[in-house]
Write a structure and sequence with these properties.
Blueprint (H helix, E strand, L loop, with lengths): L1 H29 L1 H16 L12 H30 L5 H40 L16 H19 L1 H12 L1 H9 L1 H15 L4 H33 L1
């Protein structure tokens, strides 16, 4: 009987997920040109009055619209998907665990919106300024270079930067979950081996961030500060728990 109730609840959740995903994707495709303009606005302002994009293939414009609609659908649909998963899993959790998951969900949403807005307003325009400087004519006038960006490549690179920012925004929550599941020895291991950890962050930032030294340093520094802050908060929580228990 309990299995039938769970399967019935799962079918209902999957039905609403499918309906919401379809409506979100159709709406995103209908407004895909507006979303592309929002992503391209910073580069359009930088290249004005020669601000236009090119399509090197016949189907590139269509692929750009479809890709943009799928990406925007993913960002708008994710909160609803997380809500449906939460509603399906919460009845099987205790009250204390429910409150913990609720705080993690709200904290993850706040960090996601904060990082996404900061990246879109500050990091993306700086990255386009760097690439635009590399695409200007040389001072010796021996080589004529004029930037004519492809719309599909531009959208993919912009989304890549925003996706990296979205992943970095969830690092504190991931570290908190690992510390809660594994325990205090992990904190001491991180403190003893933080120099190896910093080298690993440099390598990850080099592979994931745009090919600009300042963007790579910023990505590495931001990730390192987030992890160090999370470890510091975990240490404070562990010490306070020991003092209360003692």
């Amino acid at each position: 009987m309990e299995l039938e109730i769970i399967l019935k609840e799962l079918r209902i959740r999957l039905f609403w997920i499918l309906i919401c995903f379809s409506l979100t994707w159709l709406t995103s495709y209908w407004l895909s040109e507006e979303f592309i303009f929002l992503l391209a606005k910073s580069l359009i302002i930088l290249l004005y009055p020669d601000s236009f994009f090119i399509c090197a293939q016949l189907t590139e414009a269509f692929n750009t619209y479809v890709t943009m609609s799928l990406i925007s659908c993913f960002y708008f649909f994710s909160p609803f998907l997380g809500y449906q998963i939460r509603c399906f899993l919460m009845p099987s959790c205790y009250e204390g665990r429910r409150e913990r998951y609720k705080k993690l969900l709200y904290g993850g949403g706040f960090c996601f919106l904060l990082f996404l807005s900061v990246t879109f307003v500050w990091v993306v325009p700086y990255a386009w300024h760097f690439f635009q400087l590399l695409s200007t004519t040389s001072s010796t006038d021996l080589l004529m270079i004029k930037l004519q960006p492809k719309i599909f490549d531009y959208i993919l690179l912009t989304v890549r930067i925003l996706f990296i920012s979205s992943i970095c925004s969830q690092i504190p929550l991931i570290v908190i979950c690992l510390l809660e599941s594994i325990g205090f020895p992990v904190v001491r291991t991180l403190i003893r081996n933080r120099h190896f950890f910093l080298v690993a962050l440099l390598l990850i930032a080099t592979l994931c961030s745009p090919p600009d030294i300042w963007c790579q340093i910023f990505a590495c520094f931001l990730t390192f500060v987030l992890i160090e802050s999370t470890v510091l908060v975990a240490l404070i929580i562990q010490v306070s728990k020991k003092q209360l228990s003692g």
